[in-house]
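Hello, quick one for you while I still have it in my head. A protein chain has come my way and I'm curious about its shape. Can you walk me through what the tokens say about the fold? No rush at all, and the record is pasted right below.
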Amino acid sequence: MNTLINWVKKNTEMTLTIISGILIVLGFIFQYQNLTIQNIGLEVPTFITAFIIGGYFSFLSAYDDLFREKKLSVDILMILAAIGASIIGYWMEGALLIFIFSLAESLEAMSLAKTSEAITELMKVTPDIARKYDSDGSIIEVNTSELKIGDRLQVRKGESIPIDGQLESEVAVINEASITGEPLAVTKYTGAEIIGGTINEEAAFDMLVTVEDKDTLFSKIIRMVEEAQDSPSKTDSKIQQIEDTYVKIVLLAVPIFIILMPLVFNWPWEESFYRGMVLLTVASPCALVASVAPANLSTISRAAKNGILFKGGDIIDRTTDIQAVIFDKTGTLTEGKPEIVESMYHDDSQKELIDRLVVSAESSSTHPIAAAFLKAYPQTKIIDLDELEDITGKGFKFNYGGDRWRVGNRKFVLQEDNQIAISAEENKKVLHKESQGNTVIFVSKNGQFQASYALADQLKPNAKETIERLHELNIQTVMLTGDEDRTAQHIAEVLGIDDVRANLLPEDKAVIIEELQETYGSVAMVGDGINDAPALATAEVGFALGSGTDVAMETADVVLLKDDLLQIPFALEISNKTRSIVMQNIVFSITVIVLLIISNLFQMISLPIGVIGHEGSTILVILNSLRLLRHRSN
């Protein structure tokens, strides 16, 4: 019973429509059985009640459009047609017209509610209550919305993190699947950023609030989805613009039709008025008006569930026209963090010592290369080095055991005193790694080569498959990067990218995108950093990775929350499917209107048939649009 009550509260419009339908059935039974009370037929008051109940929301909408928005809408046409049918004694037809129109409107309202589930699900991710440390050190429970920057919180095992912040405890194991889609938990250490809505999988930890509730990542995501649902596409906007004019034409055409038909075809006035009411019904652009919005909203909802945020219906339109997708390299196609993929030693017996010396030197730096060494050799014990010096842009030099050591790039390490201190065979192996786009770090002792470490920025797991899928969609692929040409060419070759531009500054990317727009027409840009913002803004459609900067997310038109590059071809596919369904809806609705108008002119349809044909087409259009909620990648 409670389930039924909740459904009625949630779907009031559909509930009234169902009651209206039941009353029409009762009215039809009363009419067929000729039931009366004191010689007054029961069918007429029953049909009138069905009319009032079923038309309640339509009347409110028509009143709002006419007196507040100062425009005419299809609701007005339907109410006038139903009133007109009732005036000439067609009570059942008038009630039936309102019922089917109300049914179509209710289905559309339910479809809009369905698309809002994406927001509802997102809002459930972050908890409403947070455990906050009070001034005396005790823990109190407060509403998440009341949290301020600087508040200290406790997050217990298994709980969702209530708000974005900074980890204060030494370590925390956090499941970030709600953001990244990755099932494996991530270990974070003191000072690391943590995101509201992710889950603490291990021991309780303390955190510091660094943003207000309205500025959290999930709050931004929710706002993006809400704004997207309120932003119509160009096609939808055009249809909305012509609706008022179209309704005026119909309201003018119907009385002219009623007056002319008796004069031209010698129809009786009653027949002419009846046909005028049929015309008022079938000429209404209900299906046409419903051709676009439900489709776009279904697409926005389906995409959001897949981790894709379109920032409006117009973005879906623009995405459909994309002919080329342009990728940033670092952090977009690659992980953005170099890793040691291979090491080589002049004397293998010295491997352990050399590793310890290199890690000891690198441990004093915060450079990404230093981080790669510390990650590769986490258990290595640090050695005290003499006269350690960090030479910016080159490497380290230090003394150990009476020997001079250097760690860094080729020129700094191997060309000391203009002497090239590496054998031809070893140099050949190093050059081979460099030709594959690896960064090579050299180690020398007293000017002689001792070891080399090849580092590479690893490709993201789905990068190659993404490029392949885009090619299947006949989309050209381009990579723009500030990296050197050799590395860029190697990555492009591995992935199968069509065009590569390397050694670029951030401002160069926007200029090149303008050139590519002349070549391909409409292009999309995929990036993650502040330096990508100009390019994201220049492209017809900008895709930002959810792990990227706030600037990139705010500049882009589409945000990929899970950092999954495969969502790019999915976004293109569902955009194309949306346009296809919208065109189906428009052609179908116009065809039905034309056929019904012609059939009415030749007196081939009755008002009930006109109602069913016209409003039935509206229902079919809405149901066709809802197919997008189940769209799957090809």
Remarks:
- Residues 464 and 494 are 8 Å apart (CA to CA).
- The two ends are 42 Å apart (CA to CA).
- The chain has a mean pLDDT of 82.
